[in-house]
Write a structure and sequence with these properties.
InterPro entries: Cupin_1, Germin, RmlC-like_jellyroll, RmlC_Cupin_sf. Keywords: Apoplast, Glycoprotein, Manganese, Metal-binding, Secreted, Signal. The protein is α+β, with helices and mostly antiparallel strands. 23% of the residues lie in helices and 27% in strands. The protein contains five helices and ten strands, in the order H-H-E-E-E-E-E-E-E-E-E-E-H-H-H. It has helices at residues 5-25, 56-59, 173-178, 184-190, 195-204; strands at residues 67-71, 85-91, 96-101, 107-113, 115-121, 127-133, 137-140, 145-149, 157-163, 171-172. The protein has a five-stranded antiparallel sheet with strand order 1-2-9-4-7, covered by helices on one side. Helix 4 (184-190) packs across helix 5 (195-204). The mean pLDDT is 90.
Amino acid sequence: MALRTSTLKFLFLLLSSFAICQMALAGDPDITSDFLVPAKQRKVDGNFFTFTGMRVLINEDFPTNFTVLKASMVEFPALNGQSVSYAVLQYPIGSLNPPHTHPRSAELLFLVDGCLEVGFVDTTNKLFTQSLQAGDMFIFPKGLVHYQYNADPNNPAIAISAFGSANAGTVSLPKTLFSTNIDDTILAKSFKTDVTTIQALKAGLTPR
């Protein structure tokens, strides 16, 4: 399902306004020049400061799986040193952005279309949840575990997230715990279960 024209206009207006907000929330170290240029970058003109990776939002249908389109310094090198980055998150019906953290920035999420169930857990293990509607904003504090879930059985959702870092980083809890080489026995003891259960969880996260 392609995005409605009115939704697209609103989305891009928000991108502009978020940029202003993020300058005040910037958390990366200050730089001593106007901008940073990669060593292998030979030519610097308007193209260097332009990111076209979001054009797929206009030209393609809505994805069938949860999808994140990032504009961080990895995808958009001109952001290096500018203390800002974005992500556009697309949630098909029933999809989930699993529990994860951003170690270098808070996340300011704006829900453009649809509904989302969101939440985060603070360092005292208190869970904060909210049901968001289109037009709502929600802040996920820096470094805390959080998630988003589209529980609407009829409609997809789309959101824009702004970060006060050019490289906020993402640590996905399921992948970090069960898709790395942490010993099965250590995980079994940590979760007070058995190795067979841990291996089943790992198998479920293996790409098919």
